[in-house]
Structures are given as C-alpha cells and as structure tokens.
Amino acid sequence: MKEIKKITCIGAGYVGGPTMSVIAQKNPNVIVTVVDLNQARIDAWNDADLENLPVYEPGLDAVVADARGRNLFFSTDVEKAIDEADMIFISVNTPTKTYGKGKGQAADLKYIELCARQIAAVAKSDKIVVEKSTLPVRTAAALKSILDNTGNGVNFHILSNPEFLAEGTAIVDLHNPDRVLIGGEDSAAIEALVQVYEAWVPRERILTTNLWSSELSKLVANAFLAQRVSSINAISELCEVTGANVDEVSRAIGYDSRIGSKFLKASVGFGGSCFQKDILNLVYIARSYGLTAVADYWEQVIILNDHQKARFAENIIQTMYNTVNGKNIAFLGWAFKKDTNDTRESAAIYVADHLLEEEAHIVVYDPKVPAEQIYKDLDYLGTRSSEDNRRLVTVVNDPYEALQGAHAVAILTEWDEFRTYDWAKIREEMKKPAFVFDGRKLLKRDQLTSIGFDYYAIGE
Ligand code: UDX
Ligand code: UDX
C-alpha cells in the first residue's frame, strides 16, 4: 500500500471538522481537505475570525489556526477532493428515519449511499474509504457493493474507524484517545490508516478488528454509556421518595473500581446526536434478527430516559401549584451538555415542549445556542405551530433578562457560568415564592435555600 499523501473527508460537521483538523495538525505532510455540500458551513470553517467556526469546541480554534491553509482545507468542491484523495473519510450524518420502514428507529443511510455513489462515479484511482459516521452493523457491505459495481476498474478498500470523541471535550479526546479502533479486511489498508494515527497515538492504543466488530463496538460503547446514565437516573427517582441522595449513592458505588466513577451523574436525561440514535440502531438490528429479549433490554434505556425528562417537567408543574399557564419559566441552558453549541436531542427541547403544552411562557438563555436554533428544535417536534412557539418562547442574550420577573428557573445544561451568578440578586428580581429546578445538580442546596429559594434537584 502506498503512503497516504491526500485525505478527503466528506461532511464538515461536529465529527468531521474537529477530527480532520487534528489529523492535519499531527500529519503536516498529508493534505487534508474537508468537503461539505453546505456552502455556509464551509464559509464558516474558512472564516478569518476563528470565533465564527461552525462548531463550538474548546481548543478547536487553536488547532485550526495551526493547520488551516498549511495542509488543512475546507471546500465545497466534492468531486475534485474525491478525485485527488488516497483515502476518503465519510462523516455525513445518519439521522434516524422519519418515514417508511424502520421509521423512528432505523438509521437513514441515504446520505451515506449518495457519498458512495459519488465516490464510485468520480474515482479514477484506488481509494481507501473509511466509515467515520456511526452506522448500523454491516453497512460496509452495502458500501462495498455500490463501489464495486461501477465497472471502472478501481479498487476500493473499506475500513470502519468509529469516532469516540465526546462533544465539549473533542480536542482533548482526539489528542489523547483511550483507543483508536480500526476495522477492516485488508491488512495493507488497515496499516495505512494506522500510520495516520501513529503520528501521535501510541501503537498499543490502536486496536484493529474485523469490520463488523468495529461497527458494532461503536454502538455498544454508546449503549453502555447511556445505560449508566439511565441506571443512575432510575435510582434518582428512588432517592427522591426514600430520602437518599443520588450524589452520595453515585459516590459510594463509584469508589468500587469494578464500577468506576464516571458517567454516574444523575441528570434531567441524556441528549446528543449519538446515544438515542445508536441504541435505536441496536434495538432495530436485534429486532430484525428476531432477538426480542435483546431488543427490549436495550430499548428500556431510552424509555427510562424519556421518563426522566417527562418527570422533570411534571415536577415543575406540580410544585408550581399544578399550573404553569401564563407563568414565566427561565431556562438556563439549551445545549445537550456544556461546552458545545449542539442541541440535538437535548433534554431541554422535550422539557420545554411539555411545559408549553401547559401554556407556560419560557424565556431561554444559553451562552452558545442562537435563537433560530431553539425555534428550529421546537418547530421540528411539530407539537404546535411555529407562531405558537414564537408566542410562548422568548430567547435572550443576557441571563439576568431571562430571570427578571420569572416565577421559576430551570437549569437544563451544566454551563459553569451559571454557578457564578449573583443568585441573591436574581431572587430579588423574581416572583415569590422563587423556585429553582436544577436538572443538572449544578448549584448548592444550602446556599440557595439560605438565600430563600425553593430549591429542587434531581435525586434529592
Ligand atoms: C454525524 C453523525 O451524526 C454521526 O452519527 C456520525 O458518527 C458522524 O457524522 P456530525 O458530524 O455531528 O455527526 O453531523 P453533522 O454536524 O450533521 O455533520 C454532517 C455534515 O455532512 C453536514 O455538514 C452536512 O451538510 C454534510 N453532508 C451531509 C454532506 O456534505 N453531504 C451529504 O450528502 C450529507
Ligand atoms: C457520546 C460518547 O461519549 C462518545 O464517545 C461518542 O463518540 C458520541 O457520543 P457525546 O454525545 O458528545 O458523546 O456526549 P457525552 O459526554 O457522552 O454525553 C451524552 C449525554 O449524557 C449528555 O446529555 C450528558 O449531559 C449526559 N450525561 C453524561 C449525564 O446525564 N450524566 C453523566 O454522568 C454523563
């Protein structure tokens, strides 16, 4: 296998953008081109002002500043980039199907297939095609069959190289990964990709497997992580009725080295583009092989997560004398976790939707999410007209404006800045009794109650 000199990545999103930036930073002799159909997104990646990058991720600006224009390029010329590349990463989105067979569960592979057809049409020399997008198991087989049936005599090797970075810590995760996973059938192709990562990752942390193990491992890793969150969230409800404290339980069990302390933080529910989608994929695959018990087992992780979000909203309504109609509820945070501007599957969307059904008036403040995105997320649910969403929801750029005259505050994202607010001053500006519903267990109960708040936190 010849040395990789040019890499192209199709899809300049939360995964493709940061991953390729780091690959380019660490491999200065490889030309890395990231292409996307979305012109506005590419323009943002090329913006001279690094504040305007389309993905907010701590440390990303410095990596882009290092490599962009040197050996890292962003472009909409997909065909040229495919033609020139030795290795092509596919990092387009694979949303859950919203129509037809597998609706609400199966992954929609239409973008993946479009990429494969375009690669097949354009390629004039041999290529290594790397699946970066999370895919249902055995997608590589479909890719291979599309690529091999074009009859232009080009050889394609398919590799699976799932991404394990978490948003908000993507650059740290990429610079220092627990492991890099590469699945494939052709040892020379695998070795070519190993070399790209070996530029900064120790060889013993680069695992190689067969294609299907690699594809499945990504789904399973996310399912196990999500399961931990649902497990502790299930215990949080039990804590609330028994008088135990979920943080104390987490700490006590996390000290057992067999259990470990990470991913045991009770919350309003997990969100993000991966957990729900990947579990749904796992469930769909299991069901399609007739493995009903396996499918039901994993589906429960999602059912519990939906329950946790609904329960948080219900508690707000009940505590506020069973009506939130016309009341102002300030939402602190909209992103699915801190340090990202990504809102996909964020718990905030579902909690808001529940409260809006009761005609609450919600004022949202998030340090990184723009108003259009918030309205888009609510409109996407289709629960009410977009006029009604705009009538009931206001988005502000100043947190104190959100809290002015509010009946209650709900904390949906664990942004650090929320801790530093002047909560005594906030209470003065709020309607009394002043309620705080802390979906992230971010604030200190003693401090808030001594100021005079009615403070509710998950699992206490
Ligand atoms: C996506 C998937 O959600 C995830 O499962 C997978 O592991 C990696 O790809 P992400 O990068 O977060 O993750 O998605 P997104 O931010 O939506 O980026 C995908 C990009 O692909 C978009 O910018 C979109 O414009 C682009 N795209 C999509 C193409 O360039 N061509 C297409 O045909 C489809
Ligand atoms: C996840 C995986 O961690 C990553 O390896 C994979 O590549 C993509 O999916 P991400 O979705 O970016 O990453 O974020 P993650 O940190 O895993 O958090 C997911 C959700 O779980 C967030 O909403 C977070 O707030 C929630 N969470 C996480 C909890 O509620 N409690 C926890 O203890 C941990």
Looking at this protein, list some descriptive labels.
single chain; 460 residues; alpha/beta; Rossmann fold; 2 domains; 8-stranded mixed sheet; 6-stranded parallel sheet; 18 helices; binds uridine-5'-diphosphate-xylopyranose
Describe the structure.
The chain is α/β, with parallel strands linked by helices. The chain folds into 2 domains: 6-96 and 105-209, Rossmann fold, CATH 3.40.50; 213-460, NAD(P)-binding Rossmann-like Domain (Rossmann fold, 3-Layer(aba) Sandwich). 45% of the residues lie in helices and 13% in strands. It contains 18 helices and 14 strands. It has helices at residues 16-26, 39-45, 60-67, 78-84, 110-122, 139-148, 170-175, 187-198, 211-242, 246-254, 275-288, 292-319, 347-357, 371-381, 386-392, 399-403, 423-429, 445-451, and strands at 6-10, 31-35, 72-75, 87-90, 127-131, 156-160, 180-184, 206-209, 328-332, 361-365, 393-395, 408-411, 435-438, 454-457. The strands form 2 sheets. It has an 8-stranded mixed sheet, sandwiched between helices. Strands 11-10-9-12-13-14 form a 6-stranded parallel sheet, with helices on both faces. β1 (6-10), α1 (16-26) and β2 form a beta-alpha-beta unit. The termini are far apart. Bound molecules: uridine-5'-diphosphate-xylopyranose (2 copies). One uridine-5'-diphosphate-xylopyranose (UDX) binds at residues 10-16, 36-38, 41, 91-94, 111, 114-115, 132-134, 163, 273-274.
